[in-house]
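Field: COMPLEX_INPUT
Field: COMPONENT_COUNT = four
Field: RESIDUE_TOTAL = 700
Field: MODE = joint
Values follow.
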Amino acid sequence: MPRQSSRKSAGKLPDIRAVAAMAKVSIATVSRTINNSPLVSERLKKRVWQAIKQLNYLPNTHARTLVSGRSRLLGIIVENITNPFFPELVQSFEEIAVAHGYEILVSSSSSDAAVLATCARRMLERKVDGVAVMTFGEEEPVLDQLVHRGVPIVLAEFKLDDPKASTILLDYSTGIHAAVRHLADLGHRSIGFLAGPRSLHSAITRENDFRAAMQAAGLSTQKKWTIECDHTLKGGVSGFEQLRRLTNRPSAIICSNDMTAIGVLRAAYMAGLRVPEDLSVIGLDDVDFAEYTLPPLTTIRLSRVDLARSAFEALRLQAEDPDNPRMQREFLVSTSLVVRGSTAPPKTKA
Amino acid sequence: MPRQSSRKSAGKLPDIRAVAAMAKVSIATVSRTINNSPLVSERLKKRVWQAIKQLNYLPNTHARTLVSGRSRLLGIIVENITNPFFPELVQSFEEIAVAHGYEILVSSSSSDAAVLATCARRMLERKVDGVAVMTFGEEEPVLDQLVHRGVPIVLAEFKLDDPKASTILLDYSTGIHAAVRHLADLGHRSIGFLAGPRSLHSAITRENDFRAAMQAAGLSTQKKWTIECDHTLKGGVSGFEQLRRLTNRPSAIICSNDMTAIGVLRAAYMAGLRVPEDLSVIGLDDVDFAEYTLPPLTTIRLSRVDLARSAFEALRLQAEDPDNPRMQREFLVSTSLVVRGSTAPPKTKA
DNA sequence: GTGAAAGCGCTAACAA
DNA sequence: TTGTTAGCGCTTTCAC
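Field: COMPLEX_OUTPUT
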């Protein structure tokens, strides 16, 4: 009776020993060959590759990880919310990672401590080479688990005083300034702002940048025209309605994120207002869907690709060169304005 | 000089041996305990768990995989297209898998043979316990790689004659019949259909189901009113425009997927037509964004959660009970109509 | 340059 | 019930 005929159909899969035997070399030489070690002669290299091909050999990642300590596995933790920005970010991160021979483990945190603890555990058990923490929120103490075990991490908009931690700074300012200028150039004088929840660091930054941009454009801001929303579509709807009740209304609205802007689009539609003729709207993020709204949304792009690339780069530097003291530990991701169809000159200059 | 002070900060992480030492048992007992083996006495179990907690011990997945042959890793291959249905499906699959203690590896196939080969390799090297092939297209010969190595796979709308392969059948008919009946009840008599590319098996099925549903509702179909599109937003736009050029136009359009429907929404808006007053539109998929379109899209839901759940279940059955000859090998996922704002009675009954 | 041999941390067969 | 032990497939000294 065969030992484990059940798991694999054709008996045993070829292992490094089989390759070595076929190529008539030691397993060390096979290992060196597949790891591109320079100390293998061309002659043997060729024999080994030939055997590998012939046997259809694939190295076993788990065995490699076990002995080398490196898994080529990266974790990414995002918020478990309805904002499509996060799934899109994960996808970008994944693509970049895979292109570099890494796999990724995804965790949705939902900012619940127990869930987060499980996240960390999953990552730790699989021996990830690094974790990108893309929650943009208050960073939970669970991260200590990771840091404590010496796992490299990279955080968005949050600095951690640890040699294994890197930070990605987001420059919202550039994009927000461009947005305000765009509106000002169009002739808008009164611009409202639907802010994100003040509990979010990023939301506060965006709001401050908006105010600074208005000032820079020589436009005055009105307290009433800045409303705290919650970064959801519903929040956008209610934000619009609050603005709508005012007697003196802005002719354009900049939103702290795209979902809010999409809420405004919907609310305006319901109210019989035409965008951009009656009201200009600008979002922030540039989620994939921003292109498909009616009208297509003018928005401030926060490039998920740039963000993902920076996160990956930070992690890879740490993973592949852990002892370099002068490694880059801070990364900057910029924003830019994408003009589509939701902005136009105001009907009457205010 | 410490051996590998560089990788981990606090020397060596606790391993199964450390736990065994602390609990004063053998490593076998520790292994049995963490694997819930019934043959460990409560007394020892307790001691072991205590030691585990105290040492903050986490078992090493790679070591477990290496010896047990099971990785608790599942692969999923989807098409690399802009249709948001696929990322959403991946997310559902992921959630279910994680809830059951599995991790997933994602591959976007882009139906390029070389890319697909890499997909298969990634999965094979990481020793996945199964692969969900959610391409809905012609299934590439690369799958043989997987099948040949005895990896369980599950396919959508495609049967493979292999004991390790399962199939998920999609019942579009129910949803499409409901959609046609909904339109008929509203008073529509003339209904157009924007089909998917005929190269896709699923697109053809949907088209046939539409015809059958029309017949069942006692409505006649016109050749001109069925147009082959490509399941993209652009395709929807051009499909709408073709319909628009006709002298005798349908008062409602059913689309083979949501992206097409969203294209119709946009094209109608551009043409100055109001949806649903001037034209009713129905999609298929119920992507997340269908809720956010203007107006919110009435659509035929193809539940990604159901699909993901079936795929996971199929794989898990195979992975955890590989030798059961009478295992369920076929799964059925149904569709249903979700009525939102893009359908209404026609202005004038045709 | 190349090979022999010592594990990486764990599970499972076998012994007791 | 519990412990002892032989590997899982690979990388990496160390010796030649």
